[in-house]
Amino acid sequence: DWSYDIDTSTDMIGEAVRSRPVHILMSGVSSERIIAALAGCAGLLARIDQGNTIHIHDPEHYTSSSERALKLAQGAIDLCQQFLLANTDPKHAANAYLALGLLKRHTDQVSEALAAYRQIFNRFPRHELAPYALLHSSRLKTDMGDLLGAKTDLELLVEQYPDVEFSGNAHIYLADATMNANYWTDAIALYRKVYNMNMSQKSRAQAAYGAGQCCSRVQDYEGVVRWLNRFEDSADGMEDQAQLKQALVMRAQACTELGRNAQASDLFEQALESDLSKTQYVESLAGYAEANRRQENFLKVLNRISAEHPWSFSYQERNRVTLIKAQVFQAMGLN
């Protein structure tokens, strides 16, 4: 037993631990590994490069927090790799591979991270961490832009692990990956499935919004209106106002395409009264002008345009507003 006969503050305890004598017995290891273990006992990091040169680092002294985090992560990676060399138990090996994948991702070693995740679901498919490995692999591939790869991982996840606790999110991720890979029709079917699963109000809102986006891509404007109406019904109290505003604009555009000009005008007017970005505002103003031009409500459009403050727009946005105004005059026969 060993007791602290010192101030129990963190710094003082750390100093005492570093000063404590230790005895190490390690058989069948190289001298470099013994030195690395001794360094660890003193609270230091020891890294052995390919030339068997040992580099000692003190994690308490660093020039930047990112440098410290990188060195600590690399030290943890070395320990995981040593553990995997010495341990063949499937349960512990899967844990180590997942830790290794997360650490490799943290240090931007993307291909090595994917390889670590792949080890889990290929070698230990029945392990409880296998679905997590597929999920992490898919998210990493999404970040890389490998959308088809992410889609494949998520398909495997929802097919082989339907009862996993995050299966609902996995279905949403799969639908998103399918949409991002430009498989619009397949994505609509997946979003419909998630919506009908009725896991939560949030999941229904996400599914309805995604389905509305995909319907817009395939020019199914009835589908756009139907799904975005469902989104609005499910999004009550939703914090993401950006999606609500975008859904409003998309519904208005779909109504215009369907010839429902009065409804489109009302929806565009609602959008214009909300806090849109400048780009969205000008786009909505153009839609509002078109919907009212079809109804010959020219003065209504001109009054809206005259109420704008042109100095608040960029050069390109001012030009777009001027063009909208010119199109209205042309429709009135005032060329």
Describe this protein's structure:
This protein is mainly α and 335 residues long. It contains 16 helices and two strands. The chain has helices at residues 10-19, 31-41, 65-86, 90-106, 110-123, 130-144, 147-160, 167-180, 184-197, 201-217, 221-234, 241-257, 261-273, 278-294, 298-306, 315-331; strands spanning 45-48, 54-57. It has a two-stranded antiparallel sheet. Strand 1 and strand 2 form a beta hairpin. Helix 5 packs antiparallel against helix 6 (130-144), helix 8 packs antiparallel against helix 9 (184-197) and helix 8 (167-180) runs parallel beside helix 10 (201-217). It is elongated and about 95 Å long. Residues 1-8 have low confidence and may be disordered.
Q: Which quaternary structure do these chains form?
A: single chain
In this structure, how is the largest beta sheet organized? Answer: 2 strands, antiparallel
Strand content: under 5%
Number of strands: 2
Number of helices: 16
Mean pLDDT: 83
Shape field: elongated
Radius of gyration computed on alpha carbons: 30 Å
Percent helix range:
over 70%
The termini sit apart by 97 Å
Q: Could you state the order of secondary-structure elements as H and E?
A: HHEEHHHHHHHHHHHHHH
Primary descriptors:
335 residues; 2 strands; elongated; mainly alpha; disordered N terminus; 16 helices
